[in-house]
C-alpha cells in the first residue's frame, strides 16, 4: 500500500506575524518558516503506518516555492521515502488549484490513501482535503483524531463540534488530520543526514495542465481590531459588583 | 440572486448555527432557501421555516442523509446549485466538511469562515488564527461560503416559510457512519452560550473542573470551556476547547480561569463582549485582553465567586 502526504511550508506557528502597513500582505522577510503543524501530524501518521507494516511507501508532495524543498526534507527525515516538489512562484496558490494538482499526482502515483493536514495555519482555509476527495470521487474522513486501517477500509474517528464521530471509508480515501491524532517525532540527526540522499523530483504546475492563477481577489490584509487591557480588581466582590453595575452582563 | 443555505441540525432539532448563517445570508441579499438534509428531520425542517428571512425550506429525507456524511450531502447539493447563485453553510465541523467538496465539484474557489459581508461579492475573513483580516472579493459565477457563526447574530424565529419535500439522489455508499460519542450536558452549548467560563492548566485536573468551575457555571447558567493546555493534559474532552483549533466563541461574558492566554486561545475568544481573567500570575498575557482582571489563586477565588454570584442572584 502506498500513502501520499501533501505538505505545506508556512510561517512557523510560534511566530507573531506582522501585517504590512500598506495592507498588501504579511511581512515574511526573515521570518522562520516550518512545515504546517497539521501536515507534520499527517507525515507522522503515514510513517507510523509504514513502520507497523501497513504501507510499503510514503510519498510526500509540496506545492510552493523552491524553498519548500526544506519542508520536504523534513518530511523525509521523519521517515517518508521520496518527495515531489511542484515548484511555483513565491505567491500563494489557492486550495482549488492545489487540489487539482494533487488529483493529477494521485492519478500518476496511485496511492491507496492520502493523509493531509485539515488546514494550513496561514490562510486557515480548511478546504484542500475535501476538494481533493471531491475531485477524485473518493470518500473523506476529515479532522481525524484516530485512524485504523482494516479490510480495505479506513475507520476514522473525527473531532466534531459535539464530541467524536466515527466513520468507515472505502479505500482509496482522503483523511485530514486534527491535532490529537499523534505527536510528531523530532527527526534524529542520522535520519536528517539520510533524508538528504532520498529522491526529490521537481515538477511545474504546467506539467499537470493546471492553471494556478488565483480565482479570488484579495483586496487587502489588515490588522484585527485590537483590544485594550481593562482594569484590575482587588477582590471577587468588587469583580461581581463591576460586572453587574458597570458592564451590565450579569 | 438566490441563496441555498445548508441547515445544521441533528434531525430532531435545528442547531442555533443555522439562524446565524441566515443572518449572514441576509447581509448578502436575495431569496434564501434553507436545505434540511437528514432522516426523520421534519422537526428540524419546521424549525428552519420559522427563521425570519427564509423564503422556503427544502427538506430532503433519506436514511443515508441521517448523519450528514459529506459525500452524500454534496451529491444532493451539487445538482441543485444549477438553480442557485450562492451556497452558504455555517462554519461548523459539518459545514466545513461538506462545503469544499461542493465547491470543487462546481470548480469554484470557496470563501471560508467569513466574519463580515461588505457587499454581495466582498467579504472579510480572518487568517493567521485571527491575527490578520483578509478582505476578499469573489468574481466566481457561483459563490460557496462558510460563515463563522460567532460573528453573526441569530435571526428571530417568528417566520412561517413553506416546507417543500425534495427527492434525494440514491446513496453513494462511499462512507458509512459507525458511531458518535457526543458529550451530554445540561449546560448551554459553547457556540450558543451567553456566558462562558473556561478553565486552563491552572485547574490542575478534571476533578477540579467539576469541583470548582462547574458550580460557578451553574449559578449563572454558563457554558464550560477549556484551553488547549487543559484538553491536551487530559483534564476535559476536546469538544470543550475554545481557541483557534477548537471553538471560536463570542459570548457577552467570557471568564478565563487559570488560563495564561496563549495566542491560540485568544484567537478563539477575543471577540467576546466582556472578558474577565482570574489568574495568579499577574504577568499572564490574558490580562492584556481582559476588561476585568483579578490576580488571585483560583482555588480560593472560585468558591468566593460562587458565593458572591449567589448573593447577587
TrEMBL record, chain A:
Gene3D superfamilies tied to this protein: HUPs
Origin: domain of life:
Bacteria
All copies of domain Electron transfer flavoprotein alpha/beta-subunit N-terminal, residue ranges: 23-212
Q: Keyword set for this entry?
A: Electron transport, Transport
Gene Ontology terms describing biological process: carboxylic acid catabolic process
The coenzyme or cofactor needed here is: AMP
Could you cite one Gene Ontology molecular function of this protein? Answer: electron transfer activity
Output the SUPFAM superfamilies linked to this UniProt entry.
Adenine nucleotide alpha hydrolases-like (SSF52402)
Q: Which PROSITE patterns match?
A: ETF_BETA (PS01065)
This chain's function reads:
The electron transfer flavoprotein serves as a specific electron acceptor for other dehydrogenases. It transfers the electrons to the main respiratory chain via ETF-ubiquinone oxidoreductase (ETF dehydrogenase).
Q: Which family does it belong to?
A: Belongs to the ETF beta-subunit/FixA family.
**Subunit and interaction comment:** Heterodimer of an alpha and a beta subunit.
Protein name, as recorded: Electron transfer flavoprotein subunit beta
Provide the species name: Hyphomicrobium sulfonivorans
Ranked from the top, the taxonomy reads: Bacteria, Pseudomonadati, Pseudomonadota, Alphaproteobacteria, Hyphomicrobiales
UniProtKB/TrEMBL annotation, chain B:
Required cofactor(s): FAD
The note on the cofactor says: Binds 1 FAD per dimer.
This entry's Gene Ontology molecular function terms read: electron transfer activity; flavin adenine dinucleotide binding
Q: Which GO terms describe its biological process?
A: fatty acid beta-oxidation using acyl-CoA dehydrogenase
Determine the domain of life of the protein's source: Bacteria
Q: What SMART domains does the database record attribute to this sequence?
A: ETF (SM00893)
Going by the UniProt record, its keywords in alphabetical order are:
Electron transport, FAD, Flavoprotein, Transport
Supply the InterPro entries for this chain.
Answer: DHS-like_NAD/FAD-binding_dom (IPR029035), ETF_a/b_N (IPR014730), ETF_a/FixB (IPR001308), ETF_alpha_N (IPR033947), ETF_asu_C (IPR014731), ETF_asu_C_CS (IPR018206), Rossmann-like_a/b/a_fold (IPR014729)
Record-listed FAD binding positions? 201, 227-228, 241-245, 258-265, 279
**Which residues does the UniProt record annotate as the domain Electron transfer flavoprotein alpha/beta-subunit N-terminal?**
3-181
Pfam hit, one: ETF_alpha
Q: Which family does it belong to?
A: Belongs to the ETF alpha-subunit/FixB family.
User: What does this chain do?
Assistant: The electron transfer flavoprotein serves as a specific electron acceptor for other dehydrogenases. It transfers the electrons to the main respiratory chain via ETF-ubiquinone oxidoreductase (ETF dehydrogenase).
Q: What is this protein called?
A: Electron transfer flavoprotein subunit alpha
| Organism of provenance | Hyphomicrobium sulfonivorans
